[in-house]
Amino acid sequence: MHRIAIVVADAARARIFTYEAGELAESDGASPLCERADLIDSQRRPRPSHLHDDHRDAHEREVDRRFSGEIAQQLDGVLAEHPAGEVVIVASHHMLGFLREDTAELPRRGTPVHTLALDLTRETPAQLHDHLADRGLVPARRRHDA
After folding, report:
1. Would the pLDDT of 54 be above 70?
2. Which of 20, 30, 67, 130 can bridge 41 by disulfide, Cβ–Cβ 3.0-4.6 Å?
3. In this structure, is residue 118 part of a structural domain?
4. DSSP string covering 32-77, please?
5. Is 27 inside a domain boundary?
6. Which of 7-16, 18-27, 57-66, 116-125 has the lowest mean pLDDT?
7. Biggest alpha carbon–alpha carbon distance for the chain
8. How many domains would you assign to the chain?
9. Which CATH number is 51's domain given?
Protein backbone atom coordinates (compact mmCIF):
# COMPACT_ATOMS: atom_id res chain seq x y z
CA MET A 1 0.00 0.00 0.00
CA HIS A 2 1.33 3.46 -0.92
CA ARG A 3 1.19 6.14 1.80
CA ILE A 4 1.28 9.90 1.20
CA ALA A 5 2.05 12.41 3.95
CA ILE A 6 0.24 15.73 3.54
CA VAL A 7 1.16 19.00 5.24
CA VAL A 8 -1.36 21.86 5.16
CA ALA A 9 -0.05 25.10 6.65
CA ASP A 10 -0.26 28.83 6.96
CA ALA A 11 1.62 31.15 9.31
CA ALA A 12 -0.56 30.33 12.32
CA ARG A 13 -1.62 26.71 11.90
CA ALA A 14 -0.37 23.47 10.38
CA ARG A 15 -2.05 20.10 10.02
CA ILE A 16 -0.35 16.87 8.98
CA PHE A 17 -2.32 14.01 7.44
CA THR A 18 -1.53 10.63 5.97
CA TYR A 19 -3.36 9.04 3.08
CA GLU A 20 -3.22 5.32 2.40
CA ALA A 21 -3.63 4.69 -1.32
CA GLY A 22 -6.13 1.91 -1.79
CA GLU A 23 -7.81 2.54 1.56
CA LEU A 24 -11.55 2.52 1.11
CA ALA A 25 -13.56 5.59 1.97
CA GLU A 26 -16.48 5.17 4.28
CA SER A 27 -19.89 4.55 2.75
CA ASP A 28 -20.81 8.22 3.10
CA GLY A 29 -17.91 9.24 0.82
CA ALA A 30 -15.80 10.56 3.70
CA SER A 31 -12.12 11.04 3.03
CA PRO A 32 -9.63 8.40 4.16
CA LEU A 33 -7.22 11.19 5.20
CA CYS A 34 -6.02 10.59 8.75
CA GLU A 35 -4.99 13.67 10.73
CA ARG A 36 -1.73 12.96 12.59
CA ALA A 37 -0.88 16.42 13.97
CA ASP A 38 -2.45 19.86 14.45
CA LEU A 39 0.00 22.64 15.34
CA ILE A 40 -0.84 26.20 16.33
CA ASP A 41 1.76 28.96 16.44
CA SER A 42 0.68 31.13 19.36
CA GLN A 43 3.54 33.57 18.70
CA ARG A 44 2.13 34.48 15.30
CA ARG A 45 -0.39 36.79 16.92
CA PRO A 46 1.80 39.13 18.98
CA ARG A 47 0.24 42.11 20.67
CA PRO A 48 0.99 45.28 18.70
CA SER A 49 2.07 47.01 21.92
CA HIS A 50 5.06 44.65 22.13
CA LEU A 51 6.49 45.58 18.76
CA HIS A 52 7.53 48.78 17.07
CA ASP A 53 6.17 49.14 13.55
CA ASP A 54 9.63 49.11 11.96
CA HIS A 55 10.45 45.77 13.63
CA ARG A 56 7.12 44.01 13.16
CA ASP A 57 7.88 42.54 9.71
CA ALA A 58 11.28 41.21 10.76
CA HIS A 59 9.78 39.71 13.91
CA GLU A 60 6.94 38.03 12.02
CA ARG A 61 9.37 36.62 9.46
CA GLU A 62 11.50 35.10 12.24
CA VAL A 63 8.42 33.67 13.98
CA ASP A 64 7.26 32.14 10.69
CA ARG A 65 10.70 30.67 9.99
CA ARG A 66 10.73 29.09 13.47
CA PHE A 67 7.21 27.70 13.03
CA SER A 68 8.21 26.21 9.67
CA GLY A 69 11.07 24.41 11.43
CA GLU A 70 8.61 23.04 14.00
CA ILE A 71 6.33 21.82 11.21
CA ALA A 72 9.26 20.08 9.50
CA GLN A 73 10.25 18.42 12.80
CA GLN A 74 6.70 17.22 13.35
CA LEU A 75 6.59 15.91 9.77
CA ASP A 76 9.81 13.97 10.41
CA GLY A 77 8.15 12.39 13.44
CA VAL A 78 5.06 11.44 11.45
CA LEU A 79 7.24 9.98 8.69
CA ALA A 80 9.23 7.97 11.25
CA GLU A 81 6.02 6.47 12.63
CA HIS A 82 4.13 6.25 9.32
CA PRO A 83 6.68 5.99 6.46
CA ALA A 84 5.41 7.58 3.24
CA GLY A 85 6.44 7.19 -0.36
CA GLU A 86 5.83 10.88 -1.05
CA VAL A 87 4.97 14.14 0.66
CA VAL A 88 2.52 16.84 -0.42
CA ILE A 89 2.94 20.32 1.06
CA VAL A 90 0.02 22.73 0.67
CA ALA A 91 0.73 26.11 2.19
CA SER A 92 0.16 29.80 1.84
CA HIS A 93 2.68 31.28 -0.58
CA HIS A 94 4.62 32.90 2.26
CA MET A 95 4.97 29.72 4.33
CA LEU A 96 5.63 27.52 1.31
CA GLY A 97 9.02 29.17 0.82
CA PHE A 98 10.07 28.39 4.38
CA LEU A 99 8.72 24.84 4.21
CA ARG A 100 10.56 24.14 0.95
CA GLU A 101 13.80 25.08 2.70
CA ASP A 102 13.02 23.07 5.83
CA THR A 103 12.06 19.91 3.91
CA ALA A 104 14.79 20.13 1.24
CA GLU A 105 16.45 16.95 2.54
CA LEU A 106 13.40 14.77 1.79
CA PRO A 107 14.03 14.46 -1.98
CA ARG A 108 17.70 13.77 -1.27
CA ARG A 109 16.57 10.89 0.96
CA GLY A 110 14.41 9.57 -1.89
CA THR A 111 11.03 10.98 -0.86
CA PRO A 112 9.43 13.06 -3.63
CA VAL A 113 7.83 16.31 -2.45
CA HIS A 114 4.97 18.01 -4.30
CA THR A 115 4.02 21.56 -3.39
CA LEU A 116 0.89 23.63 -3.87
CA ALA A 117 0.59 27.33 -2.97
CA LEU A 118 -2.86 27.47 -1.38
CA ASP A 119 -4.13 28.11 2.13
CA LEU A 120 -6.37 25.15 2.94
CA THR A 121 -5.83 24.97 6.71
CA ARG A 122 -9.52 25.53 7.46
CA GLU A 123 -10.80 22.85 5.07
CA THR A 124 -12.34 19.64 6.34
CA PRO A 125 -10.47 16.44 5.49
CA ALA A 126 -13.05 15.71 2.76
CA GLN A 127 -12.66 19.20 1.25
CA LEU A 128 -8.88 18.93 1.40
CA HIS A 129 -9.03 15.51 -0.22
CA ASP A 130 -11.16 16.93 -3.06
CA HIS A 131 -8.72 19.83 -3.65
CA LEU A 132 -5.79 17.40 -3.81
CA ALA A 133 -7.69 14.97 -6.05
CA ASP A 134 -8.60 17.81 -8.44
CA ARG A 135 -4.87 18.41 -8.87
CA GLY A 136 -4.03 14.73 -9.29
CA LEU A 137 -2.12 14.47 -6.00
CA VAL A 138 -4.37 11.78 -4.47
CA PRO A 139 -7.07 9.57 -6.00
CA ALA A 140 -10.62 10.96 -5.87
CA ARG A 141 -12.89 9.92 -3.03
CA ARG A 142 -15.38 7.19 -3.76
CA ARG A 143 -18.85 8.61 -3.68
CA HIS A 144 -21.91 6.52 -3.13
CA ASP A 145 -24.97 8.10 -4.65
CA ALA A 146 -28.28 6.94 -3.27
Report:
1. no
2. 67
3. yes
4. --EEEEEEE-GGGS--GGGS-HHHHHHHHHHHHHHHHHHHHHHHHH
5. yes
6. 18-27
7. 59
8. 1
9. 3.30.420.60
